[in-house]
Amino acid sequence: MAWEQGHHRLGRRRLKRVTVSPEEIGLCGCWQVLAVRREREPLGRHAKPPSDEIGYYATSVGAAQLSDAELLQAIRDHWRAIENGAHHRRDVSFGEDASGVSQRGAAQVMACLRNLALGVYELEQERGRVKSPSAKSRGRQMTFAAALALLGR
């Protein structure tokens, strides 16, 4: 694959795939295992060091269904949906990107708690019980006991 420029870096993704059967791999519906090598070269004066990592995926897509380029695009679209979905909502509602939490475990716990708060808000919204305009303002009003009672229903 060719190098692409975006997000203040050069990047390249390369894909290797192995055709498998669900029985031999032990995953129901799995027809391929993919390895995606992601190489990144940050640009700019204060650029971080280059990175080179491999991500592994299992898919129910048959070998003849999609080309390498289509599979790579499907993976990018998957992560784009995650970034623009849950992460974006957490950042807009709770300022996640500005959070000072830097330890990986603590950041994961905070993301889980933010997800829980958004989930409780959306549950109340679906049931027609929300008067607050956003999850953030609702979170300021709700007690832990009230949130726990909602989840128990």
What does this structure look like?
46% of the residues lie in helices and 22% in strands. It is extended and about 50 Å long. α2 packs across α3 and α3 (104-126) packs across α4. By secondary structure, the chain is α+β, with helices and mostly antiparallel strands. The chain has helices at 22-25, 68-94, 104-126, 135-141, 144-152, and strands at 4-6, 9-19, 32-42, 51-59. The chain has a 4-stranded antiparallel sheet with strand order 1-2-3-4. It folds into 2 domains: 1-65, no CATH class; 91-153, no CATH class. The mean pLDDT is 86. The chain starts with a strand and ends with a helix. The protein is built from 5 helices and 4 strands.
List the helices and strands and how they pair.
Elements: E1 4-6, E2 9-19, H1 22-25, E3 32-42, E4 51-59, H2 68-94, H3 104-126, H4 135-141, H5 144-152
Antiparallel strand pairs: 1-2, 2-3, 3-4
